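re the bet — no i am not wrong, look at it urself. input seq straight from the record:
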Amino acid sequence: LLSFPSTFSLLSCMLLLSRTLPRTNLPRPRLRFLEISRRYPQYITTHSRYPKMASQTFKLNSGYEIPAVALGTWQSAPGEVKDAVSYSLKIGYKAIDGAYCYANEDEVGEGLKQAFADGVKREDIFVVTKLWATYTIGDDKVKEGLEKSLKSLGLDYVDLFLVHWPVAMNPNGNHDRFPTKPDGSRDIIHSHSHVDTWKSVEKLLDTGKVRSIGVCNYSVKYLEELLPQAKVVPAVNQIENHPSLPQQEIVDYCKEKGIHIMAYSPLGSTGGPLLTADPVVKIAEKRGVTPSTVLLSYHVARGSTVIAKSVTPARIKANLEIVKLDDEDLKELRAYSDDLTAKKELKRYVYPPFGIDFGFPDKS
């Protein structure tokens, strides 16, 4: 395969198509980039413009390496996830982040299958999934939750298995993922401890079906409850993280305990509300990159893995462009975060209605 710079390769392909399509007055077909890449692979590069960043990793306390950038699959529309996963792995992504709760792991599995057929090796990628709250009570139920994800993904093991939220919902309720009580509130089993869930997850390491284990959405309060009783320190804590919700207390605590941070919602939320924040725009103009690149690079500069979600080929590719932010850049972003903190204007976009205080300072 050719390895021209990506923009040149795409232009070459489009030029080829313009010369080979019949010259008639009929409208010519508009081919999506993904269709072009499949029909004319010899004209599309499979090398990222940023191979160094695409392959950058962080060492987990489990001994395994986790990539700096992962493709996110949350809220990806049906029919789009398969192509997003297979295309991302084709152009250089090394990690895929998913979850049973997202209700699209079958499609993620189809995308993985396509990528493997195209030559991607299982051992070269890092797959993350999560244990949902209706599968947290008891060893058997936890194991069942893992097995469901493995079956959907078409894998023998996952690289990282995370407890999605430190909460348990009724496993025999009126819905597999979001059981509710007659009054419409979530059907929470308050008597079950998240520590007991973790003890069940620890046992999965002996099965060979998970390589590393971790948690999501854990505050310092919840980690302080967990760690004294844990045999295995979580390898990862995946949290919502961006300049308008830096969660510095959690980031610093996890660093002290050897727990790696994975950052989700790096642009703030759907629609990217942080893309127009003054310091983000200023740094983007200074470096000649997009605001999105600045926000993704912010997390890597902090030593975190960032989850970049998109189903658009051009954006999927652009999200691999991680640039090195200098001390001045990070100082400006910290000042922005500190100002929001002082004004009590921090913004958390993801907080399911469990009716539980998870110990986050901005929500307590």
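see?? Residues 222 and 359 are 7 Å apart (CA to CA). told u. also The chain is about 35% helix and 15% strand. so pay up
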